[in-house]
Amino acid sequence: MSWTGLLVFLLKLGSRRQIRFELDSPTALENLNRLAGCRQDRVPHGDTLNYFLGRLAPGELAGLRRRMVNRLIRMKVLDGGRLRGHFLVVIDGTGQLHFRRRHCPHCLERTVGGATQYYHHVLEAKLVTPEGLAISIGTAFIENADPKATKQDCELKAFARLAEQLHKDFPQLRVCLLLDALYANGPVFDLCRQYRWKFIVTFKEGSLPALWTEYEALRGLQPENRRTETPAEGVRQTFTWVPDLPYTDTEGRTFRLGALECREQDHAKEGFFAWLTNFTVCANTVAALANRGGRLRWTIENQGFNIQKNGGFALEHAYGTGPWAIKNFYLLMQLAHLVLQLVERGNLLVDRCERLFGSLRTFGRRLAESLRHALIPTQALDVVAAARIQIRLRTADTS
Asked: Assuming Cys at both sites, which of 41, 134, 181, 261 could form a disulfide with 202, CB separation 3.0 to 4.6 Å?
């Protein structure tokens, strides 16, 4: 059942209904049995899969994801993406499902133009690298779990749950969170301090107006905290920073933060970026904190949510009909996306998937055709033999 659910996303079928059309051959059944180590006489029906996932506790698949990520970390596969020894983790929310009528007791709701909308959102934590990997390591479902609550669930409430789970799953991991301006507040800074995490948070005048005013005043008094770089032809970056900015939140908690900004001239385009961080900001660190840190936050949108919404995974499609089924289909999608990123960026392929197949969506169709018509060799499933194979990820320089 789990392998069938994974194949829905590995093959980018787009719905569970497509299982009976894409995996309808004797060869596909045999391949599924070989992958799962079973001897079933038929491929599961999509409704049977929905029934199974509706009764499987979501923590089971989340635990599998944790073990997969830990394996990659122990193998040092992701070490090249560290920033000053810390793994970069982006936390951001996205829409998952939308309905015109209430779907379940846990739906969030809002009124737009006089019409009530019902929806489910998720808060994702993805480990990202400069090469474009965006690997899911944690998920908090934003939902109205308590029927007696007077306020709806939201991203900031979900952040506290997600942070606690991440610390439990990866207690020794050196983490740097990349966050948008919504998280520029005392409770988030305090959680990071408790868990000994680093953070780089988007800094905007509207989110912390008093702190922004103080930053601008101190920046003008420290002209020596300025650096200019030309990382590429036609690109000029000017960095300015204040290394020790005091901040006291509404609870009276005090923090010492570094503030930095980057003004970029990229040929005819101009850009401005600013962040708050608990890293030490100086002339030797400011460029890396900006380019290999703060600006990688967009990886979760481009290589994460956008790929899953528009790249064949159909994130916003309702694969399941019950609360647990919805969550388990989502978690299976994250597992499949992790595997496909390793395949697409690994050195088993002689070239990048886009150049070999035209698109990543086409790669999924070719993979489906292969499973329908060609048996997976038994030696390919030999765990002992597989342990001797080393697959390396393509870096930004070799892709």
From this structure: 181
